[in-house]
Write a structure and sequence with these properties.
The chain is α+β, with helices and mostly antiparallel strands. The protein has ten helices and nine strands. Helix 2 crosses helix 3. The termini are far apart.
């Protein structure tokens, strides 16, 4: 399969879309690029879904999403389950929160109408069912009232999410309008910044979906460390079993923490990070744990992303580690721009 030849994506998400005109109108989708996908839903660029194309419901906003899916297929499975919680086999019948009470003309169950409460409650449920509970997922909320509704449900749910599942918020003002007169102001700010000797113009701090990393840039140092260790065969001994690692033979994972160069057999890392006691003692897929060498926290998902980049992502690694040329503008050129 093609997906088996690609590294774990830098970002793949399942998102919740809400109409800013009619808050009761919700839509669930998946994408590796939330800002671009939102522009499609709002008709700014081509694409989007037919169900979000009504001008009376635009503009739409992304009020929450789940990130950390290891592939497009994985995200699509989660998206379908969240869209069809009355049918999803990932939800045990005894735990189902949404039940269809009507049938279509073909005899199939009709999808019940969505509400914010039903979407958030089923999202909470899916994040803790066995099918998805061990995935390196993260929940994000971008609207205060939506996050408040999530908190309200979380406190009354029969079961809680695993403690290691991050739930983060990123609220802020809407992006500034850069049209018409704003463009002139932006140009003046650009010139002033360069006159101060700045090499690059700093854009306003991004927030919400615009603050999400769309590429592997956050992993650059980690990937570079791995390239140095494995290319020069400096693996050493396994940090778990202490046996010598034979370069190029088998799968080996690297600690993600700073200067730690701890390398171990994949199976050894798995045993190290799997919980031995407690309610998760029967898990077969690690989530997180401690590195035996530096004793720092490590995330299984991060380690697998680096491993797949090293083995399958040559183009992605070359692009990531390529030295970027810094743009420098002479003051004489700045004066010319000001004059024009």
């Amino acid at each position: 399969m093609a997906s088996q030849t690609k590294p774990i994506p830098a970002l793949y998400t399942v998102y919740i879309l809400r109409s800013t005109v009619r808050h009761a109108s919700l839509y669930i989708g998946s994408t590796p690029n939330p800002p671009r996908r939102l522009s499609q839903h709002n008709g700014v660029v081509r694409g989007g879904a037919v169900r979000t194309s009504k001008g009376s419901l635009r503009p739409w906003e992304m009020v929450g999403l789940v990130s950390g899916f290891p592939s497009m297929v994985a995200a699509l499975k989660f998206e379908w389950a969240l869209t069809n919680p009355h049918l999803s086999m990932h939800i045990p019948s005894t735990s189902r929160l949404t039940v269809s009470t009507q049938v279509k003309a073909n005899g199939h169950p009709r999808r019940p109408p969505k509400s914010l409460t039903s979407v958030l409650s089923n999202l909470h449920l899916l994040l803790r069912v066995p099918s998805f509970a061990c995935w390196p997922l993260k929940a994000h909320f971008f609207a205060p009232e939506v996050y408040a509704a999530w908190q309200k449900w979380s406190t009354t749910a029969n079961e809680q999410l695993r403690a290691s599942l991050p739930v983060v918020t990123c609220f802020g003002p809407p992006p500034k309008d850069t049209t018409s007169t704003s463009r002139a102001t932006a140009k003046e700010d650009d010139i002033a910044s360069r006159e101060e000797g700045s090499e690059e113009v700093e854009s306003p701090t991004p927030w919400g979906i615009h603050a999400l990393p769309l590429d592997y840039e956050p992993m650059k140092d980690y990937v570079a460390k791995g390239q140095g260790i494995f290319e020069f065969e400096q693996e050493g001994d396994c940090v778990v079993c202490r046996e010598a690692i034979v370069s190029g033979q088998g799968l080996h994972a690297l600690c993600a923490n700073g200067a730690c160069d701890g390398v171990g057999h994949l199976a050894c890392w798995s045993r190290q990070l799997l919980p031995r006691t407690g309610e998760n003692a029967d898990d077969i897929l690690p989530v997180q744990g401690k590195c035996p060498k530096c004793h720092g926290d490590v995330q299984w998902g991060d380690m697998m992303t680096e491993l797949t980049l090293r083995l399958r992502g040559q183009k992605e690694v070359e692009k990531l580690l390529k030295t970027k040329r810094k743009r420098r503008v002479a003051k004489a050129n700045i004066k010319t721009v000001v004059a024009t």
